[in-house]
């Protein structure tokens, strides 16, 4: 029931498109030059799972994943 924020940042030229995924589902996608956040004011057990952030521009693609555990 506490707040949780997941952040993703990437730099590039041109600025990358940042996308948050949970499994194969796109949660948020924006062309940003700073960062992209996922925010839950009250995290619940159904929010547990693996989340991935992908940064992509015409020069390449990079990603990071994390597993959110909710007790």
UniProtKB/TrEMBL annotation:
Gene that encodes the chain: Smp
UniProt protein name: SMP protein
A Pfam family: Ig_3
InterPro entries linked: Ig-like_dom, Ig-like_dom_sf, Ig-like_fold, Ig_sub2, IgSF_CEA-related
Keywords: Disulfide bond, Glycoprotein, Immunoglobulin domain, Signal
Protein source organism: Phaetusa simplex
Residues annotated as domain Ig-like: 1-69
Domain of life where this protein originates: Eukaryota
Gene3D superfamilies per UniProt: Immunoglobulins
PROSITE patterns according to UniProt: IG_LIKE (PS50835)
């Amino acid at each position: 029931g506490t707040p949780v924020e997941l952040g993703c940042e990437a730099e590039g030229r041109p600025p990358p498109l940042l996308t948050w995924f949970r499994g194969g589902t796109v949660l948020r996608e924006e062309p940003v030059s700073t960062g992209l956040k996922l925010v839950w004011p009250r995290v619940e057990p159904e929010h547990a799972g693996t989340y991935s952030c992908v940064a992509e521009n015409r020069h390449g693609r990079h990603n990071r994943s994390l597993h959110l555990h909710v007790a």
